[in-house]
Design goal:
The complex is a heterodimer of chains A (547) and B (165).
Chain A: E1 6-11, H1 14-18, H2 21-34, E2 41-46, E3 59-62, E4 66-68, H3 76-85, H4 133-138, H5 143-151, H6 154-164, H7 176-185, E5 192-197, H8 206-213, H9 215-229, E6 233-238, H10 243-258, E7 263-266, E8 271-279, H11 289-296, E9 320-324, H12 325-337, H13 339-343, E10 353-360, E11 366-371, H14 376-383, E12 393-398, E13 404-407, H15 417-422, E14 431-436, H16 441-455, H17 461-479, H18 484-500, H19 504-508, H20 511-519, H21 521-530
Helix pairs in contact in A: 2-3, 5-9, 5-12, 6-7, 6-9, 8-9, 8-10, 9-12, 16-17, 17-18
Chain B: H1 2-6, H2 10-21, H3 28-39, H4 44-54, H5 65-74, E1 86-91, H6 94-112, E2 125-130, E3 142-144, E4 147-149, H7 157-162
Parallel strand pairs in B: 1-2
Antiparallel strand pairs in B: 1-3, 3-4
The chains are: A alpha/beta (547), B alpha+beta (165).
Chain lengths: 547, 165
């Protein structure tokens, strides 16, 4: 069978024929032949395309599945030139988005078209063979590294990233370029780059998909980051449970050495760089950057006192750049396509895309990558295919166990760093735990606190004891023996942990409790005042009902 | 499993691990992971032996047994206690909990008649609760030895357990 690069379909139902579909077809054939594309593009007429909502005739181009409508005879040369010859989609001829009905009809009020998934970080994951460097190279791999080493100075790389406005995707949203600048300017050598792949935030597995599906993109990104900050050595700290990702990275590093993308004198530009992988041994706290550094040094993963921060005092006391996998994965695409391209994606305050993991009581769990600014309602209605068993949304926990509890009433807040900050919500790691009305907020808070109690490293007192005491109180409330005083204590413990804990673990452990008391006070108090669990989840086994 | 393995050559296991990961302080965690993988846990003899082999004042490598023990007891994937022939790790993080983990936990404890952290009297099963395993899309999740099972419902449990002897 002969294979083609593109396939063009033209509608030929009676109405389209009346509007000149036959002539359009012939014009396409002529224009395609004129550009010598006859062997690459197949063209055919089809009777019914099924989009009766559109003005005819319709032209569909595969494999992109782009729909143009209505198309006139005069549009054809431009379409062939732009789309089939240059590979650019002709935006002004695109068909309007499909008419929506039912629960998502409100989306029509949004400016623009349906929020589409837009992949930068996961661009190649699932499309290329992750164990084959050639496949990566065919898909624009190592192009950015080549451009960086042959055309840009280290300051130029940082400048481009600064223009792009890339923010750290680990949760805090710190400008990536500014962090690089700190490391580049910090006195002391050698300098190091660390890729934080200790993805342990419950509900988060986006980094695993990048590492397993597109390991070379991380190798390339780390090398670019190393060039930018003046480092010659990097470490990938990967959590011990990610065995497949570890093996794929190891294979990728070996291949990159064979092809000269790592090692001495890369691209003969006098730049040496090498990457080591360090597997963790199971500790949530090692996702905290100073704990991670301690762990690489062969110690217990206990966070350091800060300042000094890693850009000035990191691995073995040297200037160190620590970046999350998702942040790094954006870098090659920004270098390839330019900062302007990146700025056009997302919202005015947060550029680019974000990878979300959708979990909980929904019809379709999984991962999506969408432009910054998508709302929870859109994610639930479109990508998660609605709530399971026709349940109703009660709350969403964003950003894993340390993230915020977002009640259903806030589901239309655009998800970007800025809007979420204003709404008092943290975007965190992008994990979205979507819960229906059968979820009890006390039970949820108890599970979350149990996690922190277990994962607290024990170094500082507020966190070590605060998480344990908070858990005990929640346990009491869930059994029906909580008191109103307990709520006051719980709040005080939370505030103390926020202010006095040494690191992010203790500082965020009480976020869920704070949010629950703010958004669901009646449900919390029902456990205490009435001795009932409204969702019917808590055991309430010790409730004493006075006769 | 573990009893026979302990009789195996601990010094040789440690020698190989040091050879692979290097004799350096920053290699201690990979070396301990290797010992844990080979023996199922990290017995005191292994800690003493590791100290003996890796300590090298002329290379400025000073390691104490207490430091090694502090590492082995800190990281969740390392165990200082002997475990059963098979280990069930149950994810107790929120996503799995919301997606049916509560019922599964009850089913495991009632089937095996042990609580989290315990080993069955016949030494076949150890049951451990753990934090997120990173496969939340298919919760609730259990990890039996190195095999991961997702979307586990309580009635699937007997079939899964029957695969191990």
């Amino acid at each position: 069978m002969k294979t083609y690069r593109s396939l063009v379909l033209i509608s030929s139902d009676p109405e389209s024929m009346v509007r000149g579909a036959q002539d359009i077809f012939h014009r396409f054939v002529d224009e395609i032949d004129a550009r010598g594309l006859g062997d690459e593009v197949a063209i055919t007429m089809v009777s019914d395309i099924g989009r009766h909502d559109l003005t005819l005739p319709i032209v569909i181009v595969y494999p992109e599945t782009v729909i143009y409508a209505p198309v006139s005879l005069d549009d054809v040369p431009h379409l062939v030139e732009e789309h089939l010859y240059k590979g650019r989609i002709v935006e002004q001829l695109l068909a309007p988005p499909k008419e929506l009905s039912g629960p998502i009809a409100w989306l029509r009020s949004r400016k623009g078209t349906l929020p589409a998934e837009h992949r930068i970080v996961l661009e190649r994951a699932g499309i290329i063979d992750p164990e084959d460097i050639d496949d990566y190279i065919i898909h624009d791999g190592y192009l950015a590294l080549g451009k960086v080493l042959s055309e840009l100075t280290p300051e130029g790389v940082i400048g481009e990233l600064d223009k792009s406005g890339l923010q750290g995707r680990g949760g805090a949203g710190f400008p990536a370029a500014r962090k690089m600048m700190f490391v580049a300017k910090a006195p002391g050598t050698p300098k190091y780059v660390i890729c934080n792949a200790d993805e342990s935030e419950p509900g988060t597995f986006k980094d695993r998909l990048v590492l397993e599906g597109d390991p070379h993109s991380i190798i390339e990104a780390i090398t670019i980051a190393g060039y930018a900050v003046g480092a010659n050595e990097a470490f990938i700290y990967i959590r011990g449970e990610y065995i497949l990702a570890y093996n794929r990275l190891q294979n990728a590093i070996k291949q990159a050495h064979e092809y000269g993308f790592l090692g001495k004198n890369i691209f003969e530009k006098g730049f040496d760089f090498d990457i080591h992988i360090h597997a963790g041994a199971g500790a949530y706290i090692c996702g905290e950057e100073t704990a991670l550094i301690e762990s690489i040094e062969g110690k217990r993963g206990e966070p350091r006192a800060r300042p000094p921060y890693p850009p000035t005092y990191g691995l073995w006391g040297k200037p160190t750049l620590v970046n999350n996998v998702e942040t790094l994965a954006n870098i090659p695409a920004i270098i390839r396509n330019g900062a302007e391209w990146f700025r056009k994606i997302g919202t005015p305050s947060s550029h680019g895309t974000k990878v979300y993991t959708m979990l909980g009581n929904i019809n379709k769990t999984g991962v999506i990558e969408a432009p910054m600014g998508i709302t929870l309602r859109e994610i639930i209605a479109i990508y998660a295919k609605g709530m399971k068993n026709n349940g109703s949304l009660k709350l969403v926990q964003t950003g894993g166990s340390s993230g915020s509890i977002v009640p259903a009433s806030l589901q239309d807040v655009p998800m970007d760093f800025d809007s979420f900050k204003k709404a008092g919500v943290s975007l965190g790691s992008g994990a979205l735990l979507i819960c229906d009305e059968n979820t009890c907020v006390i039970d949820l808070a108890k599970v979350l606190m149990n996690f922190f109690r277990f994962e607290s490293c024990g170094k500082c007192t507020p966190c070590r004891i605060g998480t344990q005491r908070s858990y005990e109180i929640l346990q009491r409330i869930s059994e029906g023996t909580g008191t109103l005083d307990d709520l006051v204590t719980l709040q005080e413990l939370g505030e103390n942990m926020v202010q006095l804990s040494n690191c992010g673990l203790g500082q965020t452990a009480s976020v869920a409790i704070r949010d629950i008391m703010k958004h669901f006070p009646a449900e919390v108090e029902a456990h205490i005042r009435l001795g009932i669990c409204p969702a019917g989840v808590c055991s309430m086994e010790k409730v004493h009902v006075p006769a | 499993m573990t009893m026979e393995l302990i009789e195996r050559d601990i010094p040789a296991i440690i020698r190989n691990a040091i050879e692979e990961h290097g004799a350096a302080k920053e290699a201690l965690i990979p070396i301990l992971s290797e010992i844990n993988r080979k023996l199922g846990y990290i017995p005191h003899e292994a800690i003493a032996e590791l100290k003996k082999q890796i300590q090298s004042p002329e290379d400025d490598i000073f390691v104490s047994e207490s430091h090694l023990y502090s590492l082995a007891s800190f990281y969740h994937m390392l165990s200082t206690k002997e475990l059963g022939r098979h280990v069930i790790r149950f994810c107790e993080s929120a996503p799995c909990h919301v997606m049916g983990g509560r019922e599964l936990l009850k089913a495991i404890t009632s089937t095996l008649e042990i609580k989290p952290g315990e080993t069955t009297p016949d030494n076949k099963w150890s049951f451990i609760t753990t934090s997120c395993l990173g496969v939340c899309g298919v919760g609730p999740v259990i990890l039996v030895d190195e095999d991961i099972y997702g979307n586990v419902s309580p009635d699937q449990l007997p079939t899964i357990l029957a695969k191990y002897d």
